[in-house]
Specification:
Keywords: Membrane, Transmembrane, Transmembrane helix. This is Putative tricarboxylic transport membrane protein. Helices cover 73% and strands 1% of the residues. It has 501 residues and is an all-alpha fold. The protein has one domain. Strands 1-2 form a two-stranded antiparallel sheet. A hairpin with a 6-residue loop joins strand 1 and strand 2. Helix 4 packs across helix 6 and helix 7 runs parallel beside helix 19. The longest helix is centred in the first third of the chain and has 35 residues.
C-alpha cells in the first residue's frame, strides 16, 4: 500500500502541465532522432542530454523518459518501413515488420509496434514499481557460464529455425561471428582478421554492420531488381490504419510472450535488448511452424509483435535495475547513469531514500510517457506509412544518404563508410542466394558476449570445462536447446518426406 501511495504522489508531480509538456517534447524528439539510421534511442538520449541541463532534475528526467521510449519507437518505425533499424533492439522487427509494409500493411505494422511497445513497457514498469528489490536477486543468478549457455542457445536455436536450410542458417551465423571477432584480442593482444589495418584494431561497430547488412544491403538489393516486376508502390498504403479484432487477437499472445522474454533481461547485463528480441522472434517462428498455414515470411504479425514487446519490456526493467541497483545494463541506461551523476545523484538503494520525490515522479513518468507515445503514434501511423509512397529511386537514394550520415556521425571515420559499403555487398549476396540475415545479426550481437563469458568461466575454474554445465540454469538451457534442435530436425524431415510422397 505504501508503494501505491508513493506512486500516486509521483504521478501527481508527473502530470503537472509543465511536466506533461516536457514528456511530450521528449517523446517527439526521441522519435525524431530514433528514425535516423545508425543513431537510435541511445544516441537520442546522448544528443539531447545537454538540452536538459537548464531544467530542474525532476523535469529533466521526466523529459528523458519521453526521449527514452520515443527513441525506441523511432528505431522500430524505420525498421518496419525501410528495413533500416535505428538501433540493435529493432533488428528482429525488420524481418516480418518490413515484409508487412511491403505487402501494403504498413499502418497495421506500425500499430502493432506501438501497442506492443505500450504493452511491454507498461508491464515492465509495473514490475519495477512493485518488485524492484527482487530484480537484484535475479541478476545475481547469472554468471559467465550462464551467459555462455544463453548465447549458445540463441545461436543454434535461431540458426536452425529461420531458414529451410540449416546449412545456410549456420553459414550466416558463422559470417556474423567472424565479423564480431575482427579486432585486437582483449586478453592476448593478438590481431584477429585485421589484415594489418589500424582502422580494424578496434573491431567493426555493430552500427556499421547493422546499417550495411540491413539498410544499405536492402538498397542494393532493390536497385539490382529495379527493372524487374515489383509490387506497385501504391500498395504500401492499402489496408486499414488500425488492427482488426482478429489481428489484435493474433498479436496479443505474442505481445505477452515477448514481454515475458524482455522483463528478466533488463536486469541482466548480457547485451541489452537485442537478446530477448531475437529469442522472442525465434520462439514465434518455432510456434508458427506448427500451424497449418505458417505465416512467417509472409508478414506474420506475431513475428513483429513479440520483438517489439520484448524490446520495451527490457528497457523498462533496465531502468529499474539502474534505479534500484545503480547497474546500467544497456548503452542507454549507461547514458542515463551519466545524467544522474551530472545532477549529483547516485542511483542505487539509497536513491529511494534520499531523492524519493524524484524517483517516484520518474517512475510515474514512464507510465505517462508510454501513454503519450501511444496517443501520438497510433493516429500518425498512416502518416508515417506514406513515406512508402515516395518513388523508389528517391526513397532508396535518401535511405543511402542517411545511412552514410548515420555511420559517419557515430565515429567520423571514412574507413567506416568503406566498411559499410563492403558489408552491404555481403548483405546483397546473402539476399541473392537465400541466406537468412537473422543468424548473422545474432552472431554479431552475441559473439563478443559468448567469447568473454567462456573465457571468464574457464579462468575462474582454472580451465575446468565442467563449470559450463555446473548449474541448474546452464543444464536447463542446454536441455532446452537439444529439444529445440530435435523438434526442428524432426519437422524438416517430415516436411521433406511429405514432399517426396
Amino acid at each position: 500500500m505504501e508503494t501505491l501511495d508513493l506512486l500516486l504522489g509521483g504521478l501527481g508531480d508527473a502530470i503537472t502541465p509543465m511536466n506533461l509538456l516536457w514528456v511530450t517534447i521528449g517523446c517527439l524528439l526521441g522519435t525524431s532522432v530514433g528514425v535516423l539510421p545508425g543513431l537510435g534511442s541511445a544516441m537520442a538520449v546522448a544528443l539531447l542530454l545537454p538540452v536538459t541541463f537548464s531544467l530542474d532534475p525532476t523535469a529533466a528526467f521526466i523529459m528523458f523518459a519521453g526521449v527514452y521510449f520515443g527513441g525506441l519507437f523511432g528505431d522500430s518505425t524505420m525498421a518496419i518501413l525501410m528495413n533500416t533499424p535505428g538501433g540493435g533492439t529493432a533488428i528482429a522487427s525488420t524481418f516480418e515488420g518490413h515484409r508487412m509494409a511491403q505487402l501494403g500493411r504498413a499502418p497495421q505494422a506500425l500499430a502493432t509496434s506501438a501497442i506492443g511497445a505500450f504493452t511491454g513497457g507498461i508491464i515492465a514498469t509495473v514490475i519495477v514499481v512493485f518488485f524492484a528489490p527482487r530484480l537484484a536477486e535475479l541478476a545475481l543468478l547469472f554468471g559467465p557460464a550462464e551467459y555462455f549457455a544463453l548465447s549458445v542457445f540463441a545461436f543454434l536455436a535461431i540458426a536452425s529455425v529461420v531458414s529451410d536450410s540449416v546449412i545456410k542458417g549456420m553459414a550466416s551465423l558463422v559470417i556474423g561471428l567472424a565479423l564480431a571477432l575482427v579486432g585486437i584480442d582483449g586478453i592476448s593482444g593478438a590481431q584477429r582478421m585485421t589484415f594489418g589495418s589500424a582502422e580494424l584494431f578496434d573491431g567493426i561497430s555493430i552500427i556499421v554492420i547493422t546499417v550495411g547488412t540491413l539498410a544499405l544491403g536492402e538498397v542494393f538489393h532493390v536497385a539490382s531488381r529495379i527493372h524487374r516486376r515489383l509490387p506497385p508502390e501504391a500498395q504500401a498504403m492499402q489496408g486499414r490504419p488500425f488492427l482488426s479484432r482478429a489481428e489484435f487477437k493474433e498479436a496479443m499472445p505474442a505481445w505477452l510472450r515477448g514481454t515475458a522474454f524482455g522483463v528478466p533481461f533488463g536486469v541482466i547485463p548480457v547485451g541489452g535488448g537485442e537478446v530477448p528480441t531475437f529469442l522472442a522472434y525465434g520462439t514465434e517462428r518455432r510456434l508458427d511452424r506448427r500451424r497449418k498455414n505458417p505465416q512467417f515470411g509472409k508478414g506474420a504479425i506475431r513475428g513483429l509483435a513479440a520483438p517489439e514487446a520484448a524490446s520495451n519490456a527490457t528497457s523498462g526493467t533496465a531502468m529499474g535495475a539502474l534505479l534500484a541497483m545503480g547497474l546500467p545494463t544497456s548503452a542507454t541506461a549507461a547514458i542515463m547513469l551519466a545524467a544522474f551523476r551530472q545532477y549529483g545523484l547516485q542511483p542505487g538503494p539509497l536513491l529511494f531514500e534520499r531523492s524519493a520525490d524524484l524517483v517516484w515522479a520518474l517512475l510515474a513518468s514512464f507510465f505517462v510517457g508510454l501513454v503519450v507515445l501511444l496517443i501520438i503514434n497510433l493516429p500518425f501511423a498512416p502518416l508515417w506509412a506514406k513515406l512508402l509512397l515516395i518513388p523508389r529511386p528517391y526513397l532508396y537514394a535518401g535511405i543511402a544518404v542517411f545511412c552514410g550520415l548515420g555511420v559517419y556521425a557515430t565515429a567520423s571515420s571514412v574507413a567506416d563508410l568503406l566498411l559499410v559499403l563492403a558489408i552491404a555487398l555481403v548483405g546483397l549476396l546473402l539476399r541473392r542466394f537465400g541466406y537468412p540475415l537473422a543468424p548473422l545479426m545474432i552472431g554479431v550481437v552475441l559473439g563478443p558476449i559468448a567469447e568473454t563469458s567462456l573465457r571468464n568461466a574457464l579462468i575462474a575454474s582454472d580451465g575446468d570445462y565442467g563449470t559450463l554445465v555446473g548449474s541448474s540454469i546452464t543444464i536447463t538451457l542446454y536441455v532446452a536447446l537439444l529439444l529445440v534442435v530435435l523438434v526442428t530436425a524432426g519437422a524438416k524431415v517430415r516436411g521433406r518426406l511429405s514432399r517426396d510422397t
